[in-house]
Amino acid sequence: MQRNNDIEKLLDELLTKRVSPIELLPHEDLREKLIDLVLNGEPASNSRSIVRGFTNLTSAIRSKDVDGVKVVVFGGGTGLSNIIGGDSRSEGWAANPFSGLKEVFPMTRSVVCVTDDGGSTGELLKDLPLIAIGDIRHVLLSSVKLVNIQRAYQITPKQASDVTSLLAQIFNYRFNSRPDNAAVLFHDCCKEPESLPRGVREVVLSLIEQLFTDGRLTAVLSRPQCLGNLLIISAVYRFLDRGLSNEALATNNALLHNAIYDGLQFLSFIIGVDSNAVLPCTTTPSQLRIVYANGVQTKGESKSSVSRRGYPVDSVHVDYSSEPQPYSRVIKEISEADILIMAPGSLYSSIIPVFKVPGIAQAVRDNTRALKLLIANLWVQAGETDLSLLDPDRKFRVSDMIRAYEKNIPGGTRGLFEQVLCISLKDVPASVIQRYAVEGKIPIYLDRSIVRKQGYIPIECGIYSSAAMAERGVIQHDPESLAQVVKVLYATRDCLENEQIGGKPAGGKHGLGTDEKQRVYTILPSTRYGQVRTRLSEIEFIYPENDNLPVAAEKLIDIFTEIVWQHHDIPLTHLGYMRGIRFMDVDGWPRNQRWDNVYSFFDPEDMMIKIRVDQFEDSKKLETAFLIALGQSLLGNYAHAKMVKEISSDNLFLGKVYHLYLRDESERVTHFSSVELDDYLRFSRMFPGPDLDHYTRLINGDEGFTPPGLLMGLMYAWYLENMLATHIEYKMAVMKIPQTNLIPDQKKMVVRRKKMISFFRDVVFS
């Protein structure tokens, strides 16, 4: 308390002079001035008293004792780990591993997002009924502390640094093919295992050996993996009864709740991380679901990050495999925190999923005494922040980030943060900014006045890493500078807390709730993967007569299982309308390609998907071909007959009429009810006659058109990943054109497109 009084007194002395020396500092905001003073030192002055005043103030802030200050940080992998202790996945991290918030604030805790489903984490989810581990592994390694390693293993700081470097080698080691045995894997991942303390060496080796001996884990070794993830899951399974199978764990996720906690605490102790320093936001497996402004819905974090929909994100949801459970310890840490920080990271797949977990957002609001900060992202992120929902013609701004949080976090942003830290790019060389622009990276602009009107204090400061910029030419948050900024804000909080800002807390439509009636429950990824693989092993694969197949027959199940696995929106029921897949030679291909270049189709005569064998030349072509035919298969044998009749008048050819006769309802094998089928055909511009089993479509002159079966397949593939832009995107482009009363039919066309998207979202992929 005395030190706080010292800071206030010294600050008052500088502020109350006739011409305040504080005005010598750059920036307008007092917070920014104080941050600049601590980070960059006092400005030049001929007055000894002014220099002494600045020096004393800087010293008082820097010497503020924060060892007992409790900090809780929320976020995902790279952004969270970087501010905690540096990006532990970067090659240069081991050169300076003991920095960041964990060093300035020893009582720092992380609450980590668990919706990741890409990379090694995605491979683990195929076999194990667990939460996503990748972000936890990343943050765990960044949370290693010098004092813990020294104390546990009685070694010097230099030795502790060497140990941390070896831990980085081990945790970041990746392999693509199954290792021969535990000894080989341990040797490959660590260049100098004898330099590890005996306790670390023995535990790491025992965890690796468990991967080879525990029958529940052995399957993961056959996939591309990151060893750090495997060490975590091995530690978790160490605390599970060997008699509990993965199937049993999948049906009762509560059995994993304590094991995940115990495994993390065990591994944390071994590698020098504080107890409870890294905790998942929930132990319930969950999946990200994003809805874009055009109505398209995408499931899966990794897929959403590469989607190029051309529309801003409208809303974000998290689906759980069962009722989501946070640790009571997480709520306790939040309630006792002195500082609460929302870390930078992917906007929709980092912070928002954490605050979707019941109880977390409210715990933050209930803690009314903590300093609450939001650290803004640096760069526009393709697929997430490249388009503003408020104005799709421009890139994201900081106010757009706040609106996104306001709309998607249950209860909105009120009480979650008060100040927004933004990086200052004023001192970054223009050449670096220009190079980033060439690569398509654009800074997220701080619209300071709008942020203030939203009810938050924007703080722009030099928290980028000059070392990273010098060594790798990249701009990212500097963990040391950021930690010092947080300390400045905490140390001077009592001096500044009475400052008033304009505006009200962000309002409007906000706070997508977590009411149980609104919650969507999803199948466990490992369960879905097993079901997809089982179903595909049941169908028939028929090869070309000359056996001219470019891949081994036994690999086909793997290939098509992977295609379905990547598209989490595809339900198992969609695989129930095909009897098998026939691969056909180019010479024997039966379809006329006059109107399209689609080399696949569903044949209702034998219920087989037919794919031309040359589609294997490119994995994306094969994926597209399969998805188009799979979409067509949902219509099944709906058509009894199809024919085209020419129309002429006075011997003048006018066009054609496409006739579609539906099969009798009692004989149909299709995914859709009669009402749904009628809706789809109408969306496809087919017109029902007096007899509802007969639909027609007028075709002008010698024009072509996309028949309902092919349209179903093309829309199916487009909806899943916006492929086939040349086939479908032109039909959807009308939705992006500003509507005008000069062309009334445009509005009708837009309505039809929206209804078609709604049909695929709510009926096809429901």
Short overview:
The chain is α/β, with parallel strands linked by helices and 766 residues long. It is built from 31 helices and 20 strands. The strands form five sheets. A seven-stranded parallel β-sheet has the order 5-2-1-9-10-11-12, with helices on both faces. A four-stranded mixed β-sheet has the order 13-14-16-15. A four-stranded antiparallel β-sheet has the order 17-18-20-19, covered by helices on one side.
Task: Describe the secondary structure blueprint for this structure.
Elements (H helix, E strand, L loop, with lengths): L1 H14 L14 H11 L7 H15 L7 E6 L1 H9 L15 H4 L2 E6 L6 H7 L8 H9 L3 H8 L3 H16 L1 E2 L6 H8 L8 H16 L11 E2 H11 L8 H6 L2 H18 L6 E3 L5 E7 L4 E3 L1 H6 L6 E8 L7 H9 L2 E4 L4 H10 L3 H7 L4 E5 L22 H11 L10 E5 L6 H9 L9 H6 L3 E5 L4 H7 L6 H13 L1 H4 L28 H14 L1 E3 L13 H11 L13 E5 L15 E4 L4 E5 L6 H15 L5 E11 L2 E11 L11 H10 L3 E2 L5 E7 L7 H14 L3 H8 L11 H21 L2
Tell me the number of strands. 20
For the biggest sheet, the summary is: 7 strands, parallel
Strand content: 5-15%
Main sheet: which strands, in order across? 5-2-1-9-10-11-12
Summed up, the helix count is 31
CATH architecture of the largest domain: 3-Layer(aba) Sandwich
- Tell me the CATH topology of the largest domain: Rossmann fold
The total domain count is: 3
Structural class category: alpha/beta
Average pLDDT rating: 88
